[in-house]
Amino acid sequence: HMDILFGPGVRLTPMKPLYQEGEFASNQSVTIIGPRHRMINNLRILGPERKASQIELSFTDGVAMGIDLPVRPSGKIDGTPGCIVMGPKGHIELKQGVIRAERHVHMNERDAEYYGVKDGDRMGLRVESSCPITLQSLLVRVNPSFKLEVHLDTDEGNACDLTNARNVELVKE
Of 3, 65, 80, 140, which one has the fewest beta carbons inside 10 Å? Predict the structure, then answer.
């Protein structure tokens, strides 16, 4: 897809590193078009490149675009909806790969031992804020290279005023 969207031989170039080792926000961005002909412009591509193209949207973005987003772990895109993706050199009709990323927590083996969990388990995230909440069923992803980090979408973070949280705690379910 990179060749079609950006031209032959063009590869993702890092704009800034993300928290997980080797992950980055790239200089490249695309425009996506949903069934309602609504667009999201300047959608930043995260790298490194994967074997399959995937677009992760918030629930709100999915509603606005007219896409019924299934909640899936990253990389599990079989049977998911698609959209049109436009780059500076061309466009593709992505047949599948548009999801709402399942909330999850990255951790290494030392973190997993501390919390008493293993890869594939579920945890809760207790947020003390002006809108306190406990988010349930975060998928635990364990990998030796991972640093402890929780991934939520913007809707979930905004709903509990995460930016202004007084305390955030991972709890074993």
Answer: 3
